[in-house]
Amino acid sequence: MKYATEFRDGKLARKIAAAIDAECTPDRSYTFMEFCGGHTHTIARYGLEEMLPKSIRLVHGPGCPVCVLPVGRVDSAIELARDHGVILCSYGDMMRVPGSHRMSLLRAKAAGADIRMVWSTLDALKIARENPDREVAFLAIGFETTTPPTAMALKIAKAERLTNFSIFCNHVLTPAAMRAILDGESLPLQGIIGPGHVSAVIGIEPYQEFADRGQAIVVAGFEPLDLLQAILMLTRQVNEGRPRVENAYVRALPAVGNPKAREVIAETLQLRGAFEWRGLGRLPDSALRVADDYADFDAELKFQLPYRAVPDPKSCACADVVRGLKRPEQCPLFGRTCTPDEPIGSCMVSSEGGCAAHWLYGRHRNKAAA
Amino acid sequence: MNEQPRRRDTRLFPRPLDIANGRVDMTHGGGGRAMAQLVSEIFGQAFDNEFLSQGNDMAVMPPADGRLVMSTDGYVISPLFFPGGDIGSLAVHGTINDVAMSGATPLYLSASFIIEEGLPLADLRRIVLSMADASRAAGVPIVTGDTKVVERGKADGVFISTAGVGVLADGLEIGGDRIQEGDAILVSGSIGDHGIAILSKRENLDFETAIESDSAPLHRMIRAMVEAEPEIHCLRDPTRGGLAATLNELANQSGVGLVLEEEALPIKPAVRGACELLGIDPLGVANEGKLLAFCPKDKAEALLAVMQAAPFGSDAAIIGHVVADPLKLVRLETSFGSERVVEWLNGEQLPRIC
Ligand code: SF4
User: Fold this and answer.
1) Which of A90, B94, B98, B244 could be a cystine partner for B71, CB 3.0 to 4.6 Å?
2) Residues of A numbered 259-298 whose beta carbons fall under 8 angstroms of chain B's beta carbons: which are they?
3) Where does the PurM-like C-terminal domain lie (chain B) (predicted)?
4) What is Dmax (Cα atoms) for chain B?
């Protein structure tokens, strides 16, 4: 993949880092949030923070799908597989996320529940076709990027009249989370790095409201150079005092996103009144459920899954980590009782979670040494 | 197979096994005539050698000159057949390599099969023939074995457990606790091939370039290496968990820090591409025909030349060096110009979804 390596050129990176350094006004500080877990991962993996001037502070945002899913939803997924005899299909990331009583999908599977790791909704549909006498449910999670495949699966299931297939829908919306961050406890944020692949679906227009609230917004891709470029653009916006929405992800992103995908989503899914997020609490109009026209495929209705809110484990700081209020190493459990081998909080599971990313690439050690 | 298979004994087994359509059933493990026929017509014919034809439950071997080395390993891979190999060849190569990593010459193997009821006889024969081929090509005979059949659902096709015995020449001291500050780190070829081959087969990911498992016996390369450079401190095959797991293990065992250079890591473009796509780190992906070697820095170039000239070693490279480090960290100097810690990855790497 030559294409990818071109965006990892170290010399070019140092050039951009120098430009950022030159752009920074010495007595000023800049606080930017990288919203997306994919960005958090790149930053930790390539050590980008170490390349930046001290006056720039990056805080992690809530854009890691498994990190923001509350314990109650994980419990429901486990219940679906364990108590309803359903074949539950899940993306790999979800398997190790801890629910109540240190249970996880992985442990439920070991205890006999039929849980299958899949790479796409198409695999889940295939499993449903191959097992006509079993109920098959797909555990749908993620932001706008992973929503179109779920919507497509609903369309296909309806067209094929699959009666044994349903979706446990937990899709959430990026702008709603950003709004909650800006409404919530005051981080001194001046800018936000928006996830490029989310904009590939929703476009960049939905971020205008945040620019209107004074935030510099740059939508960026996931390679280290993309991120450095975005940070440079944010710094310039702040210095110019002209916050706006900019696109640094031009190589893959039309400004309008993907209207076709949005159409399919609008047809098959609809807004929930409210959805509980880990860390952000119950947010109105922040998540999607299966649309009424597709109600036969809604696992929550089919299996009458009630939602029970469950508090996070004691002294777990996940709620603060996903809001950018705490750095991972400020959690008392970080690296002690909570590690990727035995995650206690959800941020330690996926390598896009703030805690796992820090742990995995040893960034906490650099801080300890510094 | 180059030898003529033995003729079937028509008095004992009047009808041949229906290899084309038959399946293993519980009688094949029952100790009766059906089992005797299975053993004779599938295993006996394929593995045929002077030790097996002693016909006993054990093999008697001549005395060996040196210290004995022994290793055992179980193989439970799914799918049974994958690009570049199958469970049979893997069970031979894996155990030969485990024995050889001590510097020893592998001499004999044993093989024990746990077969799930319902396994097609054709699959079983294909696996057994592949084992026989692998063992002959490596010059390490399978001298004793066992077969059990378990009910459907109690295994996954077939599980194979092999043990290997080898002999270690005096003077060679190779081990995971002997790595020293200043050593060079070498790898015998491209990394991540096996894991990605399995993953792409298991998940039906059709990549443009077929990625094949690197499953291969490394004992001949090791022989050449220890003959050329007896001062090798450590040899280890980075199988499950990939380089990340093996290097962390070794750093702890020897109490040192390891520094890798990303640019020096041999990774096939197709494997790199697949890892990008799946969001996994090639350092955490399994290998089955690769070894890591540690030797004093001034011997590294000579050792590298020996590896590159040996079978399965043409892509060998020097990938890093050993430093003093009380934290016993494995660090990677990225081609991006930064540095990161290479952590043990937990269990099977899971794909990221976005
Ligand atoms: S260390 Fe564990 S418990 Fe603490 S915030 Fe991170 S994931 Fe949550």
Assistant:
1) B98
2) none
3) 180-326
4) 73
> Could you give the ipTM of this predicted complex?
0.72
pLDDT digit string, tens, across residues B115-138: 999 999 999 999 999 999 999 999
Range of the domain at B60: 26-168
The HSE-up count of residue B335 (CA atoms within 13 Å, CB side) is 12
In a domain, B352, yes or no: no
Query: How many A from CA of A283 to the centre of ligand 1?
Result: 22
Q: Strand (E) positions, chain B?
A: 67-75, 81-82, 85-86, 105-116, 142-150, 158-168, 183-187, 234-236, 257-261, 292-296, 317-323, 330-333, 339-341
DSSP sequence for A227-288: HHHHHHHHHHHHHHT---EEES-TTT--TT--HHHHHHHHHHEEE-SEEEETTTEEEET-BE
CA A165/CA A154 separation, integer angstroms = 9
CA B117 / ligand 1 centre spacing (Å): 46
Indicate the pTM of the whole model. 0.82
pLDDT for B220-230, tens place per residue?
A: 999 999 999 99
B15 CB neighbour count, 10 Å cutoff: 8
Q: Given an 8 Å threshold on Cβ–Cβ distance, is B341 in contact with A365?
A: yes
B279-312 residue pLDDT tens: 788 999 999 999 999 999 999 999 999 999 999 9
In this structure, how many other beta carbons lie within 10 angstroms of the beta carbon of residue A102?
11
Residues B89 and B215 in one domain: no
Query: Taking Cα atoms as reference points, which of A38, A109, A49 lies closest to residue A78?
Result: A109
Query: Best mutation site among A93, A315, A318, A336 for ligand 1, i.e. most ligand atoms within 8 A of its Cβ?
Result: A318
Full residue range of the structural domain in which residue A108 is found: 1-363
Q: Which residues does ligand 1 sit against, CB inside 6 Å?
A: A 316-318, 321, 328, 331, 333-334, 338, 344-345, 347-348, 355
Last residue in a domain, options B125, B150, B168:
B168
Residues linked to residue B144 through DSSP beta bridges, in sequence order? B110
CB B141 within 8 A of CB B110: no
